[in-house]
Amino acid sequence: MKEGIALVIGGNRGIGFNLVKALRSRGWTVYASVRPQTRADKSDPSCNEQQLEATGARILEIDTLIEATVHQAAKEFGLRRLDVLVNSADNTSGSNLAYRLSKTAINQFSRTLAAELPVQDPPAEGPSSYSALKLDKATTSKICVLSIHPGFIPTKMTNFEGPDDMDECIEGIVEQVEREEGEWKGGNRRSGGYFDWKGEVMDW
Predict the structure, then answer these.
(1) Where are the alpha helices (DSSP H) in 63-96?
(2) 155: DSSP letter
(3) N or C, which end of the chain has less CB nearby within 10 Å?
């Protein structure tokens, strides 16, 4: 597989941090977004700025409530290509209904994004002629959207309890990512699907 470029949202602790480490160990160029509030979270032993820097990942400080930080991160990232965007988000079955509904919205967003992304390449003439084209849903998209259940891993979200092994689950997630990156041929029936870290289909 070619060397990939990944952006991991929430890359300084828990599952996000371990994904950063795993991708870097496989030769990926990784950008890790960090919320300022979590840079020194002493309640989470996995949150360690020095360990994140030691991976060689490039850190982008983003607070989505402060628009200027988003613009600055975009400026730092530049116009280079992005092969993989990882949005780390919990999907537990906790008792907080509002929280569960917010995660349900993420599921719906993923499904809708997979269906609504442009499915046709811009023509050689450039974007001006492309804007006049009618998109044909029968053509293929080069963007794949996957929702992956990471397993029940011990993290701060689970009070550091869970039967699954972090390293094993992270390895499985990265294999799912690299499977899509390595086998892409301009169309993918997995896009919009929900899978576990082993690649098995899960019900929504």
Answers:
(1) 67-77
(2) S
(3) C
